[in-house]
Sequence to fold (71 residues):
Amino acid sequence: TGTGSHTRNGMTRSRAVIEQLILDRTCGEIVSGVVEIDRPVLENGVMDFGEGACDGAATLTVGGEVYTIDL
Fold:
């Protein structure tokens, strides 16, 4: 777990790891874990890296909509 933030153009964005991120060194990708993303002006989101497969995908949930992200 952990947190981080950065400020760009006067707006601070932050994120918090709410489930441990696991990196699979054989494919070089994060294969599981969940990060909560706090963005000013825009809706907050949750990035889910899955259940352990080296599939190059994650899901981003924002405002009840789920988007597939290619890593």
In short: The mean pLDDT is 93.
